[in-house]
Backbone:
């Protein structure tokens, strides 16, 4: 079984688990799982985002559909490029969740809403629009991912600056420096998805311990 197939199966297993949790009406269980993955992001990087997140899984499917249809997807709107927007969305989401429960005694299906939103948006925009500029869960993961002790990393000696990694990264985590022509990955933004590993022609990228100063 190839690495790619293994990754697809892991994502599908988590998606099925997510659907089962939602169907049972216990959304809080998934939120608890998510909370546990925040300290885990310090130890292992943002593995939740790359493998367990239902939004990422449906976005991978939407991205594949959009690429197949060959329609041109729109650029990220300039007004959306604000670092505070995901935090505002997080605050509103928490207020809606708690307010509706206390005042109206209803559970707002917040997670299914974000899953649907991420899928639809990715049909029309590149994945980074949701991952980087909208997702409130991603904002929390990014915060903890800043201190991640392990992440994907580029061996500068082996990098030829071809930018193939940049093109497949769903979260703007890797950039080829214009002067050095070497790729650099920011662990805080890296979803550990391995897209870049699969396309790098020189096998310059590996999951390893983060050296001091690489954050
Ligand atoms: S795909 Fe590999 S060789 Fe090309 S820029 Fe990225 S890390 Fe460097
Ligand atoms: S840098 Fe590589 S592993 Fe990290 S999110 Fe981008 S494509 Fe995925």
Residues:
């Amino acid at each position: 079984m190839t690495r790619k197939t293994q990754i697809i199966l892991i994502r599908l297993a988590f998606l099925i688990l997510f659907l089962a949790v939602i169907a049972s009406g216990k959304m809080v269980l998934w939120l608890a799982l998510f909370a546990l993955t925040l300290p885990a992001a310090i130890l292992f990087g943002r593995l939740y985002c790359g493998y367990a997140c239902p939004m990422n899984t449906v976005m991978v499917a939407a991205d594949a559909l959009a690429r197949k249809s060959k329609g041109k997807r729109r650029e990220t709107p300039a007004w959306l490029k604000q670092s505070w927007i995901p935090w505002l969305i997080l605050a509103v989401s928490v207020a809606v969740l708690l307010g509706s429960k206390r005042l109206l005694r209803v559970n707002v299906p917040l997670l299914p809403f974000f899953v649907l939103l991420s899928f639809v948006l990715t049909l029309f925009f590149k994945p980074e629009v949701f991952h980087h500029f909208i997702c409130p869960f991603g904002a929390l993961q990014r915060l903890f991912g800043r201190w991640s002790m392990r992440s994907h990393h580029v061996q500068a000696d082996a990098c030829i600056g071809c930018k193939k990694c940049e093109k497949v990264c769903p979260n703007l985590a890797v950039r080829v420096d214009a002067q050095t022509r070497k790729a650099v990955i920011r662990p805080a933004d890296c979803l550990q998805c391995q897209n870049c590993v699969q396309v790098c022609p020189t096998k310059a990228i590996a999951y390893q311990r983060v050296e001091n100063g690489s954050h």
